[in-house]
Amino acid sequence: MAVVTRGFGGRRPASERPVPPGQYLTDDFPVLSTGPTPNVDAPTWEMTIRTEAGVEHGWDWAGLQALPAEDVTVDIHCVTRWSKQDTHWRGVPVDALFTEVETAAEFAVAHSFGGYTTNVPLDDLLDGRAWVVSEYEGEPLAPLHGGPVRLLVPHLYLWKSAKWLRGLTLHLDDEPGFWEQHGYHPYGDPWSEQRYA
């Protein structure tokens, strides 16, 4: 029996795909950060998911690498108006981290080494919509782009894809992160131009 998926017809070439309103295409990958690049070595990297009840689930580098990884090709969009099409990443789907996490939470706050935070509805991290990535374009993720590990939530503006990921804290209510506390939109959908609150 044949299985037909949404991608059966193939992906349209980048030149034929639209970009979100107000965006321009670039071949570069501009680097924008709120502070200095943290120095995090992959062998000593660790992350946790902390539920609203205070239960913690943790992974070290070896534990993350042992999980099933996926190759992901996605377009990314920065709130500063650039978009980059057909970027290639490799990482663990966030779903794989939640296999034993019991939660009633509806929101997550991503925490980075260096103190950065950003809020994301939990539904936007699950069901194949987000990854914890450690490779970009076939190479280990460079520190300037969030290495050794960053969150990748490609359907939202890139500030939601927290660099230097060290954990997710789950909440029953939405808790604004760094940019959201400084006037950025709480959700950040590029197709709706949700740049600012």
TrEMBL record:
UniProt xrefs under InterPro entries: OxRdtase_Mopterin-bd_dom (IPR000572), OxRdtase_Mopterin-bd_sf (IPR036374)
Segments for region (Disordered): 1-40
Top-level taxon in the UniProt lineage: Bacteria
Organism: Isoptericola sediminis
One Pfam family cited in the UniProt record for this chain: Oxidored_molyb
Name of this protein: Molybdopterin-dependent oxidoreductase
PANTHER family in the cross-refs: OXIDOREDUCTASE MOLYBDOPTERIN-BINDING DOMAIN-CONTAINING PROTEIN (PTHR43032:SF4), PROTEIN-METHIONINE-SULFOXIDE REDUCTASE (PTHR43032)
Oxidoreductase molybdopterin-binding domain ranges (all copies): 35-179
